[in-house]
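Pipeline run #58 for the internal structure catalog. This entry was flagged by the ingest filter as a single-chain record with no existing model, so it goes straight to prediction. Upstream metadata was stripped on purpose; only the residue string is passed forward. Reviewer on rotation: M.T. Logging verbosity set to normal.
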Amino acid sequence: MAKTSSVEKNNKRRKLVDQYAAKRKVLKDIIMDQSKPIEERFRAQLKLAALPRNSAKIRIRNRCEITGRPRAYYRKLKMSRIALRELGSLGVIPGLVKSSW
């Protein structure tokens, strides 16, 4: 089980990303638009830099929803390989058969 503080920190980042998503998109569109004057683009870049760092989507870490483990994460199932193996052994995941010989 992962530290609760790490999981909560990641959840806080997810909320910040949702909160600032629209504002970041508008600023990024201004920055990327080559037809706008350089001064306006630079001002938009400064405003973007003034936003909280954790409001960037790239800062979110994919974590297992069961254990909170940050590594060996399967996106499709939203869980780590260890949790997948445990649930597969118990027969909880339909269509998954854990081989043993």
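catalog note: The chain has two domains: 1-61, 62-94.
catalog note: The domain at 1-61 is CATH 1.10.287.1480 (Helix Hairpins).
status: ready for reviewer M.T.
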